[in-house]
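Listing S7. Sequence submitted for prediction.
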Amino acid sequence: MRRTMVAGNWKMYGTRASVAELLSGLGQLALPDSVDVAVIPPSLFINQAIAELHGTSIAVGAQNCAVEANQGALTGEIASSQLVDAGCTLVLVGHSERRQVIGETDEVLCRKFAAAQASGLVPVLCIGETLEQREAGKTLEVVGAQLSSVIAAVGIEAFTSAVVAYEPVWAIGTGLTASPQQAQEVHAAIRSQLAKESAEVARGVRLLYGGSVKAANAVELFGMPDIDGGLIGGASLNADEFGAICRAAGN
């Protein structure tokens, strides 16, 4: 049975003061035991988050890692082994903002996925289409290609210790949300693609939805059979709203 998961991606937001306030609020939340909860702060605040959330059930992840697992001469990057040493348990790989704005390629993302797993981190592989691609009817083609590049590079068995997050680019930070039916269609296609390689892996892998998830729409989204929780953006910066989303996942 797949455990539901809710992870909050704080993106490039926060100061020491605002993060302290947010962490204080998160530490007071009553969270459902049936949901794995994580927060993913900017790297500057990882240590602060780990210290403040010590003793709670909330895990801490990173938004990015280097293509190399071990320490080395790679200025400005953070090795996955360093993230583990800090106390992280998961890391985002392939978020659309890194694909679209930073220009990270499938080849780079495959290396990051492998580096994360080599250090014992759980990679959360983000895939999704732009509005133009959806309007052209290419959603499943685009998402399938993004997923298949990683399967080809690391093998299907790697997904026994990975999470996949479907985030339509057109729904991130726009207020637009894929309908539960639209999201389910893509999630079902992702699981079917994985099942062609291994039915066992496909049954076990957690598929998260991301894209303007709020407490108001979370119950219906998380009620879909192939949606196992959410990767939450803006709503995760409000402890009460994030807690409400986590409780919705627990239902």
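Caption to Listing S7: primary sequence and predicted structure tokens for the chain studied. The chain has a mean pLDDT of 97. The chain has one domain: 4-250.
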